[in-house]
Amino acid sequence: VQLQASGGGLVQTGGSLSLSCVASERNFCMYAAGWFRQAPGKEREFVAGASRAGGTTEYTDSVKGRFTVSRDHAKNTVFLHMNNLKPEDTAVYFCAADRVRVFANPVAKFYEYWGRGTLVTVSS
Fold first, then answer.
1. For the CA atoms of the chain, what is the radius of gyration?
2. For residues 78 and 118, what is the distance between their CA atoms, to the nearest angstrom?
């Protein structure tokens, strides 16, 4: 499966952005989906993930209450809605897909497929 992430941009502190990740396959519902980010000079980290059906979601502690991950199976798309953005959220955001597991895993090595990433910059 090929993944195309979009929606990044420049936003002020406290602002909102929504990222989209469109999959090339119609059976994207058979993949767990995750969002990761990588800030300059830092390792890639898990942000949020959704199970195959989308009913079970996971978040890293720093984004809980601010970010929401959701899926639209009719559009083969997973979204990351980001509110109350902070400068420390600045990073390249990647979507990823896992064909093996039902639930999203916070460990990057379990995801077989990755999109190219979209840059989110939060100004102070």
1. 13
2. 14
